[in-house]
Structure formats: C-alpha cells, structure tokens
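Researcher:
Attend to token order:
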Amino acid sequence: MRQSQTKRTNIVKINSLKNIFFRSMLVLCAAGMVLTGCNNNEREENKPTAEEEKNDFDKEDGDNNKVVGSEKNENSGEEHNEIVEQPEDNIKEENNKPVDNKPVNPPKPSKPQKDSALKSHWSKLESTAKAGQNYYSEYYTKTRLITKNGYLYNYAASIQITTDYLVNEGRLSQANTSSGISVMLMYGTDISAYGGNDAYIDPNDKEFTVFAFMKHPNENKYIFTSANGSYGTLSSSAYNSLMNVYSMSNGTIRRLTPSNSEYDRILSCIRMYESKYEQYFVRSITVDDEYAFAVLSGRANAATIRQYILRYDNGIWEVVMDDLETEGRLPVTVNKKLPNFNMSLLPSYNIKDFTMLTDYTAVMNALTKAGLYAKDDTFYYFCGTNEFCYMITDSGKRFLCRYNNGEWECYKVLDYYDALGRLQKFTNNPPTFILLDLE
C-alpha cells in the first residue's frame, strides 16, 4: 500500500514539474515575441496557438492531474497531503474581470452662493452690467473702446463710461443702478484668478467683458456681476490686486534721446528680434518704467516704417508686439493685448491713415526751382507722405515740403523742432513719423 501511495505521489510531482516547465517555456516564448517586435495577434490560420498546445498537453495528462484532497495512511493513521492540480479557470476569478479604464471626471465645483440679503444690490449690478455690455457691443466697431485702469473707457472721446453716463444716454434707469457701482472692462479669467471659489465666470466672459462692481455694504469685500450671468465676491485685497493688473501707472513717460544708453539697448533688442542687424532711421522711442514704443525704419528704405512695443523686465528689454504700423485701430489692438500699457506712450498719428510717398521727382524739381537744392548735393535722408516730405542732405541742409493746391511748397528748416513746429501749424494731425529723431 505504501508503495502504491509513493508511486502515485511521484506521478503527481512529475506531472507538476511538467506543467511548471511548460509554463516557463510559454513565458520565454512570449518574451521573445515582444523583444523581436512580433504581433502575437498575427498568426497563421493553421498553426496551433500556445494555448491550444497547452490544452492538448493537459488533455493527455488530465487523468493523472485529477488527484484531489488528501489520503490517509491506513497503517500509520497519518494523513498524507498530496499536490492538487486545479484548473486555471478556478484561480481567482476576480483576476479575469474586465478592467474599467474610463476616465473619472472630477466633480464640478459648486457655484458660489449669492447673499440673499443683498438681493436689491445684485439686481442693480445686473442691470448696470447689461447696459454697459450693450454699449460696448454697439460701439466697439464704431469707435475706440478700451479698458483704462480697469474701467470701460471711450478712447476716441476721452470719456470714462460710468453709471451716470449710461443713465444720461438712456440706456439705464436711475432706479436700477447706483452711483457706487463701477462699470469695468476686464478679462473674466483675471477675475476668476483672484476670486477663486468665490467667483463664477461664464465661459462667454473669459475674454474682454463688461462687469459691474460695487463694494459690499457691510463687509470688506466687493461683489460683481456680468450680463451673461457671471457673479461673485472678491476680498478687498484680491480686488486691489486685480486693479493693479490693469493699472497704467507705470512711471514717468519720457522720450529717449540718441545719447541715452537705453536708446541703443532697445535698438539692439529689436535687431536681435528681427535677426537682420541692420542700421535704423529712428523716428522716436518713448518709454515709461515698464514699456517702450519705438518707431523706425531700415536705412535702405526710409518709407518702410515699423512700430514696436517692448517690455522691460529684470533689466532686459523684450519685444512683445510688432507690425503695429498695419493696425487701423492701434489703441484697441494694443489695449486688448496689454491692458496695463499706458496709452500716452502711443503717438497721436496712425501710420495706416497716411499714404507714403514713393516718387520724389516732383519734390526735387520744386526744391531746384526754389533755389534750395544744388544738383551736386546728395540726400542722406528723405521720407514723406502724399502731403508732406522731410529731407536732409549730406551737407546738413534740412527741408520740409508741403503739397498744396497741386504743387509742392518747400521750406528750409533749422532742425527737428523747427520742422515739427511747421508741421503742427499746417495740420491738426501731422505725420511726425517723417521727421528723423532729434538728429
């Protein structure tokens, strides 16, 4: 009997070792397929799979593997625990359950609650925001509306849009607003950044949007709304930080002269930005403590005037806007990109409003006829529009010419300031960009 038990035990162990060996071979085959880049899904139709081979192997030895439980030694009374081979289907069924890989969306944050005690204030804010948004939408393309220090502002008319203005325009009832409400033009994303969970911004209000703000009547914070349903509260410190983002108070505005060290640094920055490293005819460079506005052209063609805005940060100038000479609504374009850019840095003219002069033949003939130009003299600089022209010879003579009643009138001027004064007398919107900077 003992020999029979021993024999059966040995058979089970041998069969178990076979299975272990076979499974090891399967693992090695699978690893080889991965390393060689083979696709184990692309198999020949008539070739048996590894799983099929395994099933055949298991079928042959099935009877020997079905040893169940333990047998009791009749002579000794001891139990002999034998190895039991179980079908793979019974091994931890939970491992065979499909894995759910669907992304789990985080719960949407709940909207902030409006203080019901401020119902009348919320109502007035909403009425004001709607009136302001209607004004902005109607006049945006008709005039030049910008944000000035955070407030809605008519740049063309130099007027801040207030509740009184909207009331006088018939866009808002006095009963539906308050003098303590401010009409703001801001990016909703900026308000959201400072309001946090206390501010809800409608998806339509992420760009420039009119918001109505007022101070909380009882607490040290501000409440706001928009026409599209944005609303919330900002602490006093958050509100002040938000207003600082839109503040145009960036220091004293001043015009740089060629002798100023920052003058050359700005030009070097523009050269690097353009990767041309050319020499320039500079018309003007105006700066404050954060931005610079430069007007210039390459010396190869003085009529190709370009305009740039640079930002000063940590001792370095960087070009942040270019091709501004092509903009028909320059203040609006700059304001949307740089809300805290001081509009006083911009020139009063818009280059796109003028037609540049390309043929100077008639001007040269007029100078010769007036006895102001000798043909042996050459010009160092000339730039003009179809109405005005400024010229400098190699010998230092300067001329300002004006097209009047079908012919060019020519004037000899002493310097930049003399030419500027004459231009300003001739027209209310002089193209001062034709004058070479403070030569």
Remarks:
- Confidence is low (pLDDT under 50) at residues 1-14, 31-100.
- The CA atoms of residues 144 and 155 lie 5 Å apart.
- The chain has eleven helices and 19 strands.
